[in-house]
């Protein structure tokens, strides 16, 4: 049988350093029927000349501007063929056989629309990586968590999450997705620009009747950024705003109303706590995010992608508060919080 065509697609913006460092590992992937693509978000460094000189076999798709993560992929993938897309961050080192176990798993079940490998830290390879770890979950108030990562605590990888399992969201740092499903769902929500767009996508994917899986038999190493620094107001703004938008889009209206109101309260507490700690930029970013969310709710909803259906079964969903479990209950690991549903 012919292998499915796997297109490994790296979104780049002024990332020549990472391309030089990590493209060799991608090229060394043992999956035969693959296509390596770099979508360039109008870089101003020498990324394109570098690729043309050193990687002539890599397909280059040029976007006309820096569209961010979500729209950058949406625009670029219009020109990319494949049975599977792998949305891969430029700062990820892959292992030679990382593709085979994921494709075998996805080919075994037509309902699996997206999947992620195990993500470990590039610098500390015994630790799970912040952006997805061994598979993302979501609590009932919209807070993301992951197998191997609770807030800013990343667990050592001792094989405790080595079984393939359904999850809520797959990390955008290394997300496998069936190409037809990606386009069927309209891709990532471009309004998000960046941050939490993969969680929203996987939420819509599940509501459409598909599953999201983690495949820890595949391992990659991510440089990443760890927890967001409170001084980085742009990232704080996008995370808080986008999290509220995805709740409003994907939850039943009645549920979304009270949960978002509660989140406003919790966010405000967090913002004032940061203000007392001297983090004025964080404080302002949270309130700007709330204002922007209300602006989206009143005037800009048509710019977003909504789920076609809300009937799909959600997996990887925590029916309690990770905030309470962690900060009040003192539970530090995913297994302690979730129990045996790992």
Automatic annotation (TrEMBL):
CDD domains: GT_2_like_c. InterPro entries: Glyco_trans_2-like, Nucleotide-diphossugar_trans. SUPFAM superfamilies: Nucleotide-diphospho-sugar transferases. Residues 7-117 form the Glycosyltransferase 2-like domain. The keyword Calcium does not apply. GO terms for molecular function: glycosyltransferase activity. The keyword Transferase applies. Signal peptide: none annotated. Keywords: Glycosyltransferase, Transferase. Belongs to the glycosyltransferase 2 family. This is Glycosyltransferase family 2 protein.
